[in-house]
Design goal:
- This protein folds into 2 domains: about 10-70, no CATH class; about 75-160.
- By secondary structure, it is mainly α.
- It has helices spanning about 25-70, 75-85, 100-115, 120-135, 145-160.
- Helices cover about 65% and strands about 0% of the residues.
- α2 (about 75-85) crosses α3 (about 100-115), α3 packs across α5 (about 145-160) and α4 (about 120-135) crosses α5 (about 145-160).
Length: about 160
């Protein structure tokens, strides 16, 4: 059994500058990178390398705002509270394994859904598994066990997006 523990204090995702709750720097950063790349490519096709650079900056700002919007749809504090309550009701629940052991798998599922909004879980799973198994996560769970929680969290976000 793992000895990894997750801090159970509520996280309001405070903005580092304003202190306002609900900051999502990861989503904004991912959106900025994706938006900047897309805009840079489009501008570069029309205006050459200088256009690509300008397009990347403009696209980065626009993409950051879009990424923030996507990330704000996923409130990590609310998701953690939901799964903490839901975990004992799931078919893979293990009475001798605390929620905190599964928390990283749930977080990985909802964060991964935000990273790949155009893919199904089945399409993303080979990459998810590889990342999980190469230690890019904070859990000692093997993928075979973590997969269920990750998929549950992924599916919850996907259902919300489709409604």
């Amino acid at each position: 059994m793992s000895t990894h523990r997750v801090d159970q204090r509520a996280d309001a995702n405070r903005d580092a500058i304003t202190g306002e709750p609900g900051a999502h720097p990861v989503g904004a950063g991912l959106g900025a990178a994706a938006g900047g790349a897309a805009a840079g490519i489009a501008a570069g096709a029309v205006a050459g390398p200088v256009g690509a650079a300008v397009g990347a900056v403009i696209g980065g700002v626009a993409g950051g705002l879009a990424g923030k919007g996507v990330a704000e749809q996923i409130d990590p504090t609310r998701e953690d509270a939901y799964w903490r309550e839901e975990y004992p009701k799931r078919g893979y629940y293990e009475a001798d394994v605390a929620y905190d052991e599964y928390a990283p798998a749930y977080r990985y599922g909802w964060e991964s859904r935000a990273r790949w909004p155009d893919k199904s879980f089945d399409e993303a799973e080979p990459t998810l598994k590889q990342e999980w198994e190469t230690g890019k996560t904070e859990s000692d769970l093997r993928w075979e066990r973590a997969r269920h929680a990750s998929r549950d969290a992924w599916d919850r976000i996907e259902r919300r997006e489709n409604h």
